[in-house]
C-alpha cells in the first residue's frame, strides 16, 4: 500500500510535465490533420469523486474550427525558417513524409536551393556550371526573362544530388 501511494504521488507530480509533452505532440498532430475532419481524439482530464489525487483520462472531441489549420498554412509562415535549420538527410526525410513539404522544399529559394547555395558556393560541374545559374555572369535574370522562367522549373533537390556526386573543381 505504501508503494502504491508513493507511485501515485510521483505520478501526480509528473502531471504538469506530461501535459506539456502531450501538448507538443497534439499541436504537431493538429498541423498534420487534414482540415474538415469533424472531430479528432485528444486527452482531457477529469477528476474522480472521492479520489482527490487521482485523475482519469477520457477522449474528447475538438471543435471543427480548431482543425482549420493544416500543414499548408505553415508555408506562409514559419515553415521555411524551420526547414532552413535542417541538413540534407533531414530534408530527405521531410520530403518522404508529405507531397506538400516535398514541393515546398524544391522551389527556387527553398531549403534545397539554400542548402546547395551554402554547400557548393564557388564550385562548378563540368558542363553544368555553378550551382545557381543566376550567379553566372552569362545569364541575365530579370522579371519576365527566359532565364527567370527556367529558374522556376529547376528541381533543386536533384541539382543538389548531382553536385554532391560530381563536384570536381573550384570555379576560377
SSE map:
Elements: H1 2-32, E1 41-48, E2 51-61, H2 79-83, H3 88-97, H4 99-105, H5 111-119, E3 123-125, E4 129-130, H6 146-152, H7 156-166, E5 169-170
Antiparallel strand pairs: 1-2, 3-4, 3-5
Q: If you had to describe this structure to a student in words, what would you say it looks like?
A:
- With 172 residues, the protein is α+β, with helices and mostly antiparallel strands.
- The chain has two domains: 2-68, no CATH class; 71-170.
- The protein is 47% helix and 15% strand.
- It is built from seven helices and five strands; from the N terminus they run αββααααββααβ.
- The protein starts with a helix and ends with a strand.
Fraction of residues in helix: 40-55%
Query: Gyration radius, to the nearest Å?
Result: 25 Å
Question: SSE order, as H and E?
Answer: HEEHHHHEEHHE
Number of domains: 2
Mean pLDDT: 65
Entry summary:
This protein has helices spanning 2-32, 79-83, 88-97, 99-105, 111-119, 146-152, 156-166; strands at residues 41-48, 51-61, 123-125, 129-130, 169-170. It is of the alpha+beta class.
List the keywords:
three-stranded antiparallel sheet; 172 residues; elongated; two-stranded antiparallel ribbon; 2 domains; alpha+beta
